[in-house]
Design a protein that fits this description.
With 173 residues, the chain is α+β, with helices and mostly antiparallel strands. The protein is 39% helix and 21% strand.
């Protein structure tokens, strides 16, 4: 007899991921910076329903490489989920109420301000010069990092495929 997860696992069409070229310059050549396992990102995110995540066709130890383009230096995930799996992940696996609540916490804001400070420091801009930065947050979620980084001289732009988060973020400006 098959379990529910075995049945669900079989409903996802192959392939499960698509290999990407550089999203900026479309180059193929890249260097692996590090790899992250399914377990690494799933067990550290309290907004994931791990029972629903278990039906995805991935083993917890499976890794996904984060790479740097050899042509332009852009860093990105070498693979992306096919649309069917991405839709399931955003609609079923992520608990939107927990996820939205997390962004209002002081700890989360401190973390984002710290990240923004490190990015500004790494930008190579002279601290005495006027800022003129454009920031793309690909997978911006609820837009909380966009809010932290917005200000004079910074144009933050977010991209999000989850329709629930995208609608909420748009209403927040």
């Amino acid at each position: 007899m098959s379990s529910d997860s075995d049945v669900a696992r079989r409903t996802f069409a192959e392939p499960h991921v698509l290999e990407r070229t550089c999203p900026l310059c479309r180059a193929i050549a890249c260097d692996v910076l590090f790899e992250i396992s399914v377990r690494d990102f799933s067990t550290t995110n309290p907004t994931y329903d791990l029972d629903k995540l278990a039906v995805l066709p991935f083993m917890p130890e499976q890794t996904f490489p984060i790479v740097r383009c050899q042509e332009c230096g852009f860093q990105y995930s070498r693979y992306r989920l096919v649309d069917q799996l991405a839709e399931y992940l955003y609609a079923e696996v992520i608990n939107h109420d927990k996820s939205r609540e997390k962004i209002f916490g002081l700890g989360k804001r401190r973390q984002l301000v710290s990240i923004w400070g490190r990015l500004l420091g790494a930008s190579g801009s002279d601290p005495s010069e006027r800022l003129d930065l454009k920031l793309l947050d690909f997978g911006c979620g609820w837009g909380d990092f966009l809010q932290v980084s917005s200000g004079p001289g910074v144009t933050p732009i977010g991209f999000e495929i989850d329709p629930v988060k995208r609608e909420w973020g748009s209403k927040q400006g």
